[in-house]
Design goal:
With 113 residues, this protein is mainly alpha-helical. It is built from 4 helices and no strands. The longest helix has 30 residues. The radius of gyration is 26 Å and the shape is elongated.
């Protein structure tokens, strides 16, 4: 498993994802319950004088996992919007997607010799 990095970096990443979400809703991210909960939890689990603070490491791991989930969902939605199928395509459009062109009929459609 990869290293988690610093808890401050994880918190900044979570707040960045909250800003992305709040841009879609139009509300400031600092007014959300998620923001208040994150700040309160990170303040409550600061490193103390203990040598090993298990609760702080556990919170950091859960926060990093949640950050990965939020980023993945945002990237998935972006990719889905970009590459989602647009319904049935004509033969000409399908040929154009792969770089081909259809042969032209001399008299156009319905031309008979």
């Amino acid at each position: 498993m990869a290293a988690l990095g610093s808890p401050a970096r994880t918190l900044r990443g979570l707040l960045r994802e909250l800003r992305y979400l709040s841009a879609a809703t139009g509300r400031p991210y600092r007014d959300t319950a998620a923001y208040r909960y994150l700040v309160k939890a990170f303040r409550a689990h600061r490193v103390t004088s203990e040598k090993l603070c298990r609760a702080q490491h556990e919170l950091h791991f859960q926060a990093a996992t949640y950050l990965c989930l939020l980023r993945s969902i945002r990237e998935h939605v972006t990719l889905h919007q970009e590459f989602h199928g647009k319904g049935e395509r004509s033969v000409e459009e399908s040929a154009g997607l792969v770089g081909l062109t259809l042969p032209c009929q001399p008299g156009g459609k319905g031309w008979e010799p």
